[in-house]
Design a protein that fits this description.
277 residues; alpha/beta; 2 domains; 5-stranded mixed beta sheet; 11 strands; 19% strand
């Protein structure tokens, strides 16, 4: 026996008082974190400000720690509002009926990275995050179950099981802006943490794709960095034109998988204009 069912209420967040009994709410489906053991009501969630507060654990870590102290999820409904990497991995953990089959070291390593980098998977899990990141047009319950199968395969076989389109394979070229506002170009970097390790607080990774388009990942080192990522996405969407919608996930923004029409210098100019404003 495992969880009872998964209920998808797209983009709906409810207050604590409206939470249903015998239910688990993931990643913003209800205000949280909140635990009610009497009525079996649980919300594993925290907002961006809470993630950066050591008192609050990352939502996936909340689920993992609760399972470790004997939480019985059997027979409970799981309610979600969005298909994203945090929701998908949280649900995957709740679906594991026998925790003994889980490689604790591997999962703990993933969760430590989540906690450290505000929800984005880095290092060995970068490609997994990319495969689980979807835009608003793709949100369906069917997509959620496809992602559960994807995590199953990734857990057993690693990155070789992921769709080729999700493999980052960045070309080692990017740029970053440091705490003093200085812009630096970087070569030989393979991830945003590489750029952050060199002193940047805002970083950009690039990958050339067909038809003279470029795929970008743009991120800031933490939520404390005074850079409006929502404004960045608004501006690049205006410049890139219809059908080239960028996605945003907390402190990370990503161009469409088929690439952006914007040049390297145009991305730089947008970032600099936001900083100056």
């Amino acid at each position: 026996m495992s969880i009872k069912s998964v209920i998808f209420r797209y983009n709906q967040e409810i207050p604590i008082l409206s939470m249903e009994n015998n239910s688990i709410y993931l990643c913003g489906a209800a205000v949280g974190p909140f635990i009610d053991v009497i009525n079996n009501r649980y919300s594993f969630d925290c907002n961006n400000e809470q993630i950066n507060n050591s008192f609050f654990l990352h939502p996936v870590k909340q689920v993992w720690n609760f399972l470790n102290i004997g939480f019985n999820q059997n027979g409970l409904d799981v309610i979600i509002k969005e298909v994203n990497p945090i929701t998908s991995l949280s649900l995957w953990l709740l679906r594991q009926e026998d925790r003994k089959v889980i490689n604790e070291r591997k999962i703990t390593n993933i969760i430590d990275k989540l906690s450290q980098y505000n929800g984005y998977f880095f290092g060995a899990t970068s490609n997994l995050h990319n495969a689980l990141l979807h835009d608003n047009m793709e949100q369906t319950l069917d997509l959620l179950w496809k992602d559960q199968a994807l995590i199953d395969n990734w857990y057993r076989y690693g990155d070789q099981s992921l769709p080729e389109s999700s493999l980052l394979n960045f070309n080692g070229y990017g740029f970053g802006i440091d705490i003093y506002g200085k812009l630096n170009d970087y070569h030989g970097v393979i991830s945003l943490p590489n750029i952050f390790d060199r002193g940047a607080i805002i970083g950009v990774m690039t990958k050339n794709v067909k038809e003279h388009k470029i795929e970008y990942i743009v991120g800031k080192k933490s939520e404390f960095i005074n850079f409006d990522m929502n404004e960045f996405v608004r501006l690049v969407n205006l410049l890139d034109g219809e059908g080239n919608e960028w996605s945003i996930d907390n402190i990370i923004s990503k161009s469409p998988l088929n690439g952006s029409m914007l040049s390297y210098n145009e991305i730089k100019n947008v970032i600099v204009s936001i900083i100056k404003s």
